[in-house]
Design goal:
The protein has 294 residues and is mostly beta strands. The protein contains three helices and 14 strands. Strands 1-2-5-6-4-3-14-13 form an eight-stranded mixed beta sheet, covered by helices on one side. Strands 7-8-9-10-12-11 form a six-stranded mixed beta sheet. Helix 1 links the parallel strand 3 and strand 4. Helix 1 crosses helix 2.
């Protein structure tokens, strides 16, 4: 079942959003960090397990497409909310032209919001649009969703120049009465950091328009010490500053996949997870929220 959810435009960063929701939701209570009382808080902390995973369009480190293997790797994280990158929706033969966002949601009994970076015309008349981008899966109700523009250097046009383009996903999730903004991003991969630097600025501008707890996850294509990421650490905390490497999945040598959170969120624990279901390793973090409502 698909529902259309549009959020009011917010300046130059806003874009139309489509929220795809599975018909059956998980009946079991999410498993994450134990609830604890926080001194001075009006209510007990609300646990939330968050993950990020670049799924390599459903192909493993062996470059074999196997979405069941991808789903199993995500299921093993036992996360409540997962940001995904490199998601194909009827994109090409490499992923059998399937809608990976909706199929993963169906397999995992979760809600999904897909935010395309690229949205191309169908290959044949009457066919499906060919899309590629990021997504967010959630066990909890999604109150709002939006696909924001950030600076990008297109891989689909000749002689591209940096320009605003969609593919920065935001969902507002109701976690047992506590509302949290969760963002999934995929930053530029090129050695020149200029586009990533612009993307960091754009993302922080989007986050600044929201109030309450915020979680930004994704494939940053740069390590934490990279100068272009420095502005992020003025506003957000790295959930796994001493975490393991995440890329490539087998014998990784750099940490470029991150879970980050605003200072009003407590990070209980975080770790990368060894799996070869993609060419990246996922990162999962147990968090605690301390606010109710928006």
């Amino acid at each position: 079942m698909k529902l259309i959810s549009r959020r009011p435009a917010r300046g130059s960063h806003a874009a139309a959003a489509v929220l795809a929701v599975t018909a059956v939701l998980a009946s079991a209570a999410p498993v994450s960090a134990a609830t604890t009382d926080v001194p001075g808080a009006k209510a007990p902390a609300v646990p939330l397990r968050v993950a990020t995973y670049n799924i390599h369009a459903g192909a493993g480190e062996d470059n074999v497409f196997d979405l069941d293997r991808t789903a199993a790797a995500i299921r093993d994280l036992n996360a409540d909310v997962i940001g995904l990158q490199e998601v194909d929706v009827h994109w090409s033969s490499r992923s059998n032209f399937v809608d990976e966002a909706e199929e993963l949601a169906d397999k995992l009994d979760m809600k999904v919001f897909f935010a395309p970076i690229y949205d191309n015309d169908p290959a044949t008349e009457g066919g499906d649009r060919q899309q590629y981008g990021v997504a967010v899966l959630s066990r909890y109700p999604v109150l709002e969703a939006e696909n924001h523009d950030i600076t990008r250097l297109s891989t689909q046009t000749p002689n591209p120049v940096p320009a605003p383009a969609p593919g920065f996903a935001e969902v507002t999730v109701n976690v047992n009465g506590s509302h949290v903004h969760v963002y999934s991003t995929h930053l530029d991969y090129r050695a020149n950091p200029s586009v990533r630097s612009a993307q960091v600025t754009d993302m922080l501008n989007v986050l600044a328009e929201d109030s309450g707890p915020k979680v930004l996850v994704g494939d940053f294509n740069a390590e934490a010490s990279a100068p272009e990421l420095a502005p992020l650490w003025q506003e957000l905390q790295d959930a796994a500053p001493n975490g393991g490497k995440t890329y490539p999945a087998v014998n990784p040598f750099k940490r470029i996949d991150f879970v980050t959170a605003s200072p009003d969120i407590t990070v209980v624990s975080a770790q990368d997870v060894a799996t070869d279901a993609s060419d990246h390793r996922p990162v999962v973090a147990d968090l605690e929220l301390h606010q109710r409502g928006a």
